[in-house]
Amino acid sequence: MPNLFRKKAVAYDNSEFGLKRCLSALDLTLLGVGAIIGTGIFVLTGHAAAVQSGPGVVLSFVVAGVACGFAALSYAELASSVGGCGSAYGYSYAAFGELIAWIIAWDLILEYGVSVAAVANGWSGYLNNALTAMGIGLPDTLVRGPSALAWNEHLGGALQWFGFDPNAPGVKEAGRGGFINLPAAGVILMLMLLLIAGVKESARINAAAVVIKLIAIAIFIGVAVFNVNPDNWSPFLPFGWFSHDGSRPIGVLAGASIVFFAYVGFDAVSTAVEEAYDPQRDVPIGILAALVFCTVIYVIVSALMTGIVPYHALNVPSPASEALLRIGHNTAAGLVATGVVAGLTTVMLVLYYALTRIIVGVSRDGLLPSFFEAVNPRTQTPVRTTVIAGTVMAIMAGFIPLGVLAELVNIGTLAAFVLVCGGVIALRFSHPDMPRPFKTPGGIVLPVLGILSCGSLIAFLPYETHLRFIAWLALGLVIYFGYSVRRSKLAVA
Q1: Can you give the residue ranges of every domain in the chain?
Q2: Within the chain, which residues score under 50 in pLDDT?
Q3: How confident is the model over 288-301, as pLDDT tens digits?
Q4: Is residue 312 exposed (0-12), middle (13-18) or buried (19+ Cβ within 10 Å)?
Q5: How far apart are CA 134 and CA 486, in angstroms?
Q6: pTM score, two decimals?
Q7: Fold for domain 25-112+199-328+405-492?
């Protein structure tokens, strides 16, 4: 019987596998900001305000940000002391053993892969809106994949096993969708070529796009701050802190479990350990600086957004530009929409990057075939993994409606955060004398709070989301016991 909880050494992994060290603390911070500021602020803020939190969405962002802060401190400690390619996967391998590490890796593959495809769909919508305004919009058949209703019919009702309700409000009204979301698939393939070219080149593009979307946010803030109507903030908590509207959770805490998606991405910084100039110093700086900066931005923007228009008017795909249009600032709305396109591009780029590095790390350990760990000697990037991942995500973005899967991103991320916080606690007891260039303050208090806060947000997610997550983990266990457990480098060492 193999040891399912065999552990990797906790010594900091500074070995060279061909990846190029070229990222500074500023590069890593911008990578984090690029990954974080995107879908959450440009899309989810309006939805959460309209149907779950009202103006109290500001508090939802604070709650989610605090939970992420606890996890971020744990990430920073482990990144500085354990290191290695693979983010929470590598940390769990050292703290809990192989089986838990595999579950986390499988979880992160879902998180990043679905996130990229989902964001690509949002990017496509904004792009086509801009093209339509110029009179060259694409037909619906080329900007929409088949709907969930259509796929459920094609699959003989199989989606209903995963919580899909063909009779739910809005499902039939949405129709059968189109043929393919061509822009969504196309942008992923373009990002694939960029990542193949090299990580430094990708970082430069990311930095430029981050500047563009920060300018767009600055425009929104500059216009909105002079158009706030305090009456729009009353009542501030129309749905309370937590309750139910039928089977649907509502309130500030339920809103926090949704806007949590807005913070997905700061953990991607930890996957860049092997490409950072000084990872033990720069990675913790990048993680914490990105999270603090983005939390402040979220609070300001959500407060202004609900201050200039009534919260119930924000349940639209583009709440930031919609709010500006409602107060008559059409030019500013157009500029903000342009920033959205740039913002969503950087989100996809960083999450795509993180996905490939996790797969590389898992492959090195023998849990996936060695085919995936190969690094191209000319570009010093994992070309094979980048191409395969990009192709799969492009197909998902082009043909599969991801609304049903979107909440999996949240539950998967929260589960990873729980284990990262738990990893800090476990290593504090098992390796108390291990060098820790960055150490989470307060002993184990903050990691415990991270476990409790992230675990609570999981509980606030819909029941169907838990079922889909369990199904994905079950598939991962089949792969582990069918292939990985016998091929692991720890098993053959």
Answers
A1: 25-112+199-328+405-492
A2: 12-17, 85-86, 169-170, 173
A3: 888 888 888 888 98
A4: exposed
A5: 57
A6: 0.74
A7: Amino acid/polyamine transporter I (1.20.1740)
